[in-house]
# Entry
Amino acid sequence: MALVLIRGENNSKLLNSIADLERHANLNLVSKPKIIDAKFADNLVENILKSKLRTKSKVATSFFVKEDTTLSIVQIKNIHPPAHVVIISDEYKGYEELKKKLETAPNFEGYYSHKSKSEGMRDYKIKNRKIIKNNKLNSYSRR
# Structure
């Protein structure tokens, strides 16, 4: 699992970035996005980059994705989200502190996942309503 931190100017840019991570980078969110203090997020990113940021953020959110850190970084490099997306590795000093903040942080409102929750379509004609797997229906979740 990788820890994702997104900093931005407003909530709509954060929501669009989360949607881009799901749709275009094919990352699967494990936890709901949580609100993180923007100053804390800026300081954490400055410590990771070891340089001053050009612009300070006004809002920030963080969450876990199912994919590992390396794959997450590679997938995010291929897209251009409207906010600053950073993958926080467990090697960095602020990882544990951010992880602890996520336990008590409030949910980031307005996010919903567009991905299917089931493995396939439910056949209601059959008595036990078994699930029919169809890879074409869920092809957007695979690459």
In short: The first strand starts at residue 2 and ends at 8. The chain has four helices and six strands.
